[in-house]
Amino acid sequence: MRTRLSEAARGGLFTFGLGLTLAVVGTASTHARGESDRASSNGDSPAAQYTVKATPEGKAVYRDGELLTEYITLSGRKPILWPVIGPDGVAMTRSYPMGPTKEQEREDHIHHRSFWFTHGEVNGIDFWAETENGGTTKHREFTAVEEGSTAKISTTNDWVGPDGKRVLSDERTLVFGDDGGHRYIDVDITLKATDGPVHFGDTKEGSFGLRLAGTMKLDAEPGGSILTSRGVKDAKAWGTEAEWVDYVGPIDGKTYGVTIMNHPSSFGFPNRWHVRSYGLFAANPFGQYHFTGGEPTDGVRLEAGDSLRLRYRVVLHRGDSEQAQIAQAWKRYEATE
Prior knowledge:
By secondary structure, this protein is mostly beta strands. About 10% of the residues lie in helices and about 40% in strands. It has a single domain, classed as Beta-galactosidase, Chain A, domain 5 (Distorted Sandwich), CATH 2.70.98.
């Protein structure tokens, strides 16, 4: 069942559907957004300003008055960000199943909902796939919302099994801002064993994921490319360890990229990457044996009251990895506390 379009998304849909919303709002508006992106890097204009507005489904984040994304508290069985709007107003994640299917999108893996965090085996419960006996990550409350030169949304969430009992909770903070001419989203998640011991199983099905726009994927026509911080390319990047991975491809005839960076303070750094040719792009701090072969490990265990912290930065950029200076952007992120 498809999630209904949010109020923030509907506001810009007009005739064409959300996946095209910010790409078609008008030449003057698109030009202004591009100038704002560039101004943030050369310092000759004021930095972009971020605002947050309540919607029926969560919180919408605006950059200089234009929709950047919406934090939707429940889509399928988890909170997500959708749409995710990059430079020049392009939608950088898949529209399906939240909205109309776009160019070269596949209607598969209904649980790949734009931008999310879950895991496929938590105390034996599948929170990754949307199965009949799977778990649900339930939004409890917004704990902080801030606006200005960056925007911040903080929430608490409960991971609930099919029996209705809570397995664990999390606290997550998302910060939206500009760095080096790029838009970024910082993701900081603390997983807490609030209700007893928690076991994160050794599985490839996890954990912090995006499903990219259909035209960007490696197996599209003409298709995109994948590059890791360690120089591994395309399909060979799957399952490898890296500090960052950049997935680059065409949208509306121009080249754009999405980079996920793993902060050195994050649990499991540098994690392995569940990054696929069909546009799945996920950082997995728990999975091993699917990627390396051999027998499953014992996974990761938290005793009651324990916690672990995961930190990522998602960079939305123009051009390829070299043009966007992703290696330099990584050094700036690495230095953050």
